[in-house]
Amino acid sequence: MNLSIDTHSFQAQLLGLRTTLLAQISEQRGGVLSRAEVAADHFSNVQDSHAQTTTQRDLEFALNERETAELEAIDAALQRLEVGTYGVCADCSEPITKARLLATPEVTRCIACQEKSEHLSH
Length: 122
Prior knowledge:
By secondary structure, this protein is mostly helical. It has a domain at 7-87. Helices cover 67% and strands 0% of the residues. The chain has five helices and no strands. The two termini are 31 Å apart.
């Protein structure tokens, strides 16, 4: 474990991000409505063109995927905190810098490994 980090402050930061994201998801979905119900409401306007409807549907799905991925990353980081592997790069097992964790507390890789990963995927 990266002993130079205060795990309690990162846990608080991650829990805050999680709470904010869940509130944002709830607000975007109209409170108790599911994203599918909100999308159905958006798509029920017969005055919209097929292209507008398709674009709106694609946007709804993209937002859902992004939100789900972000929530999963936060939950995974909280799990790493619990098991004592938080702040350790998943690829090289070296400590992730505190500055990087402060900027993006859910990251799984150090900057060097993240850059390699991005380079390989492009």
